[in-house]
What does this fold into?
Amino acid sequence: MDTILEMKNITKTFPGVKALDDVSIKVERGEIHALCGENGAGKSTLMKVLSGVYPHGTYEGDILYDGGVQAFKDIRDSEERGIIIIHQELALVPLLSIAENIFLGNEIAENGVVNWPATFARTGELLAKVGLKENPATLVTNIGVGKQQLVEIAKALSKKVKLLILDEPTASLQENDSQKLLDLLLEFKAQGITSILISHKLNEINRVADRITIIRDGKSISTLDARAGTITEDDIVKDMVGRDMAHRYPERTPNISTEKLMEVRNWSATHPLHPERKVVDNVSIDVAAGEVVGIAGLMGAGRTELAMSIFGKSYGTDISGEVLIKGKPVDVSTVEKAIASGLAYVTEDRKEMGLILDESITTNITLANLGGVSERGVLNDGAERSVAEDYRKKINIRTPNVGQKVVNLSGGNQQKVVLSKWLFAAPEVLILDEPTRGIDVGAKYEIYTIINQLAADGKGVIMISSEMPELLGMCDRIYVMNEGEIKGQLAAKDASQEAIMRMILKA
Amino acid sequence: MTDTDNKSIGYYLRTHIREYGMVVALVAILAFFQVLTDGIMLKPVNLTNLFLQNSYIIIMAVGMLLVIVGGHIDLSVGSVVGFVGALAAVMIVNWDLPTAFVIPACLVVGAIIGAAQGYWVAYWRIPSFIVTLAGMLVFKGLTLALLGGASVGPFPSEFQAMSSGFLPDIFDRFIEGRFNVFSMTIGVVLAALLPILGLRARAKQAKFAAVDEPMAFFIVKHAVAGLAILFVTYLLSTYRGLPNILIIMALLIAIFTFITNSTTLGRRIYALGGNEKAAKLSGINTKRLTFFTFANMGMLAALAGLVFAARLNTATPKAGLAFELDVIAAVFIGGASMSGGVGKVIGAVVGALIMGVMNNGMSIIGVGIDWQQVIKGLVLLAAVIFDVYNKNKA
It folds into this structure.
């Protein structure tokens, strides 16, 4: 067997973060090579380096592909050499037909005039190859997610693929669709196409992968040979999570009230566009005053959807269930009412949903509690500034001036502005969704300290995070969520990454 | 950025180039036409006309600013101007209803028209471009239907006074002469009041934190503004005094500047346009706000319609034609952002004045309507390019 791809000592740095640190991976021709790692381990970054999204020169190390060192300038460049990547988020245009999507940007045309008969005939052939029985003229929006995934693969096949990269292809698929897709991969393997499969589903990896490379914290940890069939899921999990966690989290002595501060009972919500998909399914959780409760799960487990549907029905339709604060049912049907009931929700995506980037720190901090800095609807400039100054000092927002636009702040400081906004709204319970995403280690420690302080002040904190060590380091209790359901909960002393992973995977 | 930088005038100017750039441009354009028209531009009679001619654009620009800051647009305002003018004419001339009833009734009708359009935009999330395009067609048609294709007029004098009347000189019993002493007095009081209010605001701000604006800059700004006010009121006083419509405009500008700068309502509109999702997740009722901006726009368009009809002293089927374009152009020249969240009332007013001065000046020197359009179009484009250029540079 010869090597089709070797990525040697790849290092990729973003301002302040080393996303990839000396990563190497070797893929043999004709194999299915699985790439495993936690969220944020660097899998996607590595694939972006490979496909030219991060062009040659922005990373260190070499890509040896098909016999030579490659210097891809962009995706087009790598696609021409037969490297096709299918992203987790499908890149299809919903209101175009299957045929139009497959040949988008690569049309069968002469002098700009599309040859539709040839396009449809060729689409028919490609669809047959991936086993999709659909009319090429059908609009993509009218077929299910599983079939859309197949259209993406057909699109890849239309481009003379040599190395197919699938980024979590089965994440949003039903069981039987996933099986079909994996069968298809095995078939491609028989035809000599090499695949790299990124997946969290270890049973699937075990089923189809020849070899498995595991990366963690931006470093390649190991490459396991699965062909002999002796690799177990535990072997993979161990390499995925094994790291020490000493002193990354501030010390805290929990002082947890025996009474429940907030309870959510039998909460359900469905997808706003696909009413048949239950995104949150009969979830019941609670948090006590002074307690930090974590919700663990993989991407797409329904954690953000749970939080947002609770917080003023900001997500989903057909929402049912009950929220109780201090034992009394409260109305959380609008964000205004949810805030009035004592809830706060710090969004996962601070730029899209948390901040007004073009406005000042002051404006952002007072936004959720304008009543606190105004009288009869007239804002008190001075009071506003002193509130902002107060938080700047208290939680250490690094800026010379609270009139500064938040767009100019670093990620960590932006996150502190969002936290300040919600602290100023004086809630009882804070739901923090990925509170440390995309910020550096030092700022993380500061955020953790704020969270501990909140708990010490008798607030209830619910923390959603994809970084398991963070949950283990911070929480008193951890709920494990998968596919919209609570799969179980672990007390801090019983929790470990292996235990959480097993709880997720046991479905 | 260090503290010393913070206090330097140069730095302050660079960071506020957009706000003052347009004022400088307005003055430059005024001076340019003053020379080109051999001094006709700033003749009292022409200056008076300038305000009368542009009053309805400025009135609507104030409302349009809120709509655009909120992230939407209203294309129907020109048709609403025509419709409300026609409605007023029919009510007063054909039905003999008293002016004192017709004016508030028309304002309410305007608010209802705006609310009806805002309802679809806010609660059904239908793009405002489409809703108000439909409104534009509907009210253009209704104007024709209401007037039966003919002009209706003339109006009684108390109705006309709204637009072509002047503030009477209550002092002329004591001081004889053509010079309107009362108007001049108002100008003097205003010129004195603004720096006092400004100083008070600074003192209040200084109690809590450092003031951004350098003191020297504050003094120069208020000196220039004060002199401008005195100069303009002096010129107007030598003619017939302050036009009533100027008082109405000044009040509107003051009210809406206050709303946008100092109230929670204004802050929420900026938040809505700046990041709707974040605003919503901060507990702001974004739908109701959007609805409000449209209802408000409808009412101001109705006011503009009344003013315009009073000025022409007749309601014609063609009234209000293409006004929406001038209004929207004024707001964008004044520095508002197409994507919402950015823009100032005073900017929109300056934008409207720039357009007005150019119209007026070009007409005086005999530039044809054809080339006027070309030049106005290019000025709009240049103003927005200037914006984008500044933003990219920062």
In short: Confidence is low (pLDDT under 50) at residues 1-6 of chain B. The first helix of chain B runs from residue 3 to 7. The domain at 3-165+243-373+382-393 of chain B is CATH 1.10.3470 (ABC transporter involved in vitamin B12 uptake, BtuC). Chain B has one domain: 3-165+243-373+382-393.
